[in-house]
Write a structure and sequence with these properties.
single chain, about 575 residues, alpha/beta, Alpha-D-Glucose-1,6-Bisphosphate, Chain A, domain 3, TATA-Binding Protein, 3 domains, eight-stranded mixed sheet, six-stranded antiparallel sheet, 18 helices, 27 strands, about 25% strand, globular
């Protein structure tokens, strides 16, 4: 057994290590600076209580992006020096973010140990590679992201850090082979266990869904299927679940080999970046010669996000969570006893609100950030939740879960088609969505992202919009000058959330303009980019009249889009005549 010593290394603060709702994300060139990662990891250890570190079991893995393998070895050496008892690593350093949450909550080690936290190495849907993004975040013993109380402490620690602890003489651990490597240090034994990345997660999915029912659907010659992992970590799960467990053809998997640079692509599952899947599903710019599959889905880099597509049909994430909630009790065994409640992030469309009202369910509108859902779930108040940014999930874990969402949709399709697999025409994704609109009304919805905007200009735009809210008569005068057919704004504010569980208050969570007819304009600065600022503009129009729910989103939203761009002076402030991405 290898002996190791603990070294105390002097360091100086960097000052730019403030973790956002999704952890710390920067360019790789920033992370590879001497001590940059070390400072953040030590600051995290120092922010946790002693029992969460000394003698603890921690998970260290991620989406496999460039610099992950080096980072894992550094964190192992620092964990040993800080008195951690054992580290669990997914084989090859791969674990999806939802799988990490599942491992913390469900896995029992060979010595009956349980994990109390995790370092997750991901920059989510951002590109990877030597010149692209890297990220790190810490998850707690409930499997969810560290709350603000902890992330604030981490940031304060990064500003004053003077030293870090590391076991420099600890040899690198082979993370490609399953097994346990043991070492001895000043405080006794230290183990690194490399385990199969998929087993715990697959077991959990099989306890939630009726795999036999989905298998029957996938074996029908009338049902075709396509799943695109965009070369992210979802590839480590796709073959196991869709091919080996559910019997799909291997040819139905696209880009399912995880790569450090995501194959040079942008692992963000939307209509802009999932080009190959979009074309295969008949939604590309050119007419497809081949008949598209009935169902398609994509994942982001760390597999917590999802995009759902039908044949020549896009399902908005806001509609997706509403449809899953409306059908969950019938179609998904895990929910057969009923839903505890539902929740959405504030910018997500109000489609879920209408479902909650219909079923008389508890409903919560929270700021963007999955930890807010986690609080509700830990308190037993929420079963299903979602964000417009392609994140959907439930209380089975404390992260959004891309593959869970795909299995939820396959369960709904299997349930609706259980008597039609013989001769009848199948109920399609489009049928399910249009039937939902006929029942609940349609929330026309789009999001404009202006990426890498000058941070100063973005702040000026936000300040201008807040100031404008002080006079609704002025706001409505501007609106009528742009479009007389748009209804009046009746309420405008900056969204603030008081957590019903712990009483904490989150302010400045987005600028809202709420219209008389139920329409909404939302403006938010997003912290998910690694450079500059991202301005997100959300535009929503509610239509109850069934004869008007079949229009194209572009046509239905055109008047509100025009109003939003003029009202915000978007071009004047940012210099942009068009958004980077429209979803």
């Amino acid at each position: 057994m290898v002996l190791f010593k603990v070294s105390r290394k002097e360091t100086t603060p960097f000052g730019d290590q403030k973790p956002g709702t999704s952890g710390l994300r920067k360019k790789v060139k920033v992370f590879v600076q001497p001590n940059y990662l070390h400072n953040f990891v030590q600051a995290t250890f120092n922010a946790l209580t002693a029992e969460k570190v000394r003698g603890a079991t921690l998970v260290v893995s991620g989406d496999g992006r460039y610099f992950s393998k080096d980072a894992i070895q550094i964190i192992i050496k620092m964990s040993a020096a800080n008195g951690v008892r054992r580290i669990w690593v997914g084989q090859n350093g791969l674990l999806s973010t939802p799988a990490v949450s599942a491992v913390i909550r469900e896995r029992v080690g060979i010595d009956e140990s349980k994990a109390t936290g995790a370092f997750i190495l991901t920059a989510s849907h951002n590109p990877g590679g030597p010149h692209e993004d890297f990220g790190i975040k810490y998850n707690m013993e409930n499997g969810g992201p560290a709350p603000e109380g902890i992330t604030d402490k981490i940031y304060e620690n990064t500003k004053t850090i003077k030293e870090y602890l590391i076991a420099e003489d600890l040899p690198d651990v082979d993370i490609s082979s399953i097994g346990v490597t043991s070492f001895t240090g000043p405080e006794g034994q230290f183990d690194v266990e490399v385990f199969d990345s998929a087993s715990d997660y697959v077991k959990l999915m099989k306890s939630i869904f009726d795999f036999d029912s989905i298998k029957k659907l996938l074996s029908s010659p009338k049902f075709t299927f396509c799943y695109d992992a965009l070369h992210g970590v979802a590839g480590a799960y796709a073959k196991r679940i869709f091919v080996e467990e559910l019997g799909a053809q291997e040819s139905s998997l696209l880009n399912c080999v995880p790569k450090e640079d995501f194959g040079g692509g942008h692992p963000d599952p939307n209509l802009t970046y999932a080009k190959e899947l979009v074309a295969r599903m008949g939604l590309g710019k050119s007419e497809s010669q081949v008949e598209p599959p009935e169902f398609g889905a994509a994942a982001d880099g760390d597999a917590d996000r999802n995009m759902i597509l039908g044949k020549r049909f896009f399902v908005t994430p806001s509609d997706s969570v509403a449809i899953i909630a409306a059908n969950a009790v019938e179609a998904i065994p895990y929910f057969s006893a009923g839903l505890k409640g539902v929740a959405r992030s504030m910018p997500t469309s109000a489609a879920l609100d209408v479902v909650a009202k219909h079923f008389n369910l508890k409903f919560f509108e929270v700021p963007t950030g999955w930890k807010f859902f986690g609080n509700l779930m830990d308190a037993g108040l929420c079963s299903i939740c979602g964000e417009e940014s392609f994140g959907t999930g439930s209380d089975h874990i404390r992260e959004k879960d891309g593959i869970w969402a795909v299995l939820a949709w396959l369960s709904i399709l299997a349930h609706k088609n259980k008597d039609k697999l013989g001769g009848d025409k199948l109920v399609t994704v489009e049928d399910i969505v249009t039937q939902h609109w006929a029942t609940y009304g349609r929330h026309y919805y789009t999001r404009y992202d202006y990426e890498n905007v000058d941070a100063g200009a973005a702040k000026e735009l936000v300040a201008y919009l807040v100031k404008l809210q002080s006079s609704l008569s002025e706001v409505n005068k501007i609106i009528k000058g742009v479009r007389s057919d748009v209804s009046n704004v009746v309420h405008a504010d900056e969204f603030e959330y008081k957590d019903p569980v712990d009483g904490s208050v989150s302010s400045h969570q987005g600028i809202r303009y709420l219209f008389e007819d139920g329409s909404r304009l939302i403006f938010r600065l997003s912290g998910t980019g690694s450079e500059g600022a991202t301005i997100r503009l959300y535009i929503e129009q509610y239509e109850k009249d069934p004869s008007k729910t079949g229009r194209s989103s572009q046509d239905a939203l055109a008047p509100l889009v025009e109003v939003a761009l003029k009202l915000s002076k978007m071009k004047e402030f940012t210099g942009r005549s068009a958004p980077t991405v429209i979803t």
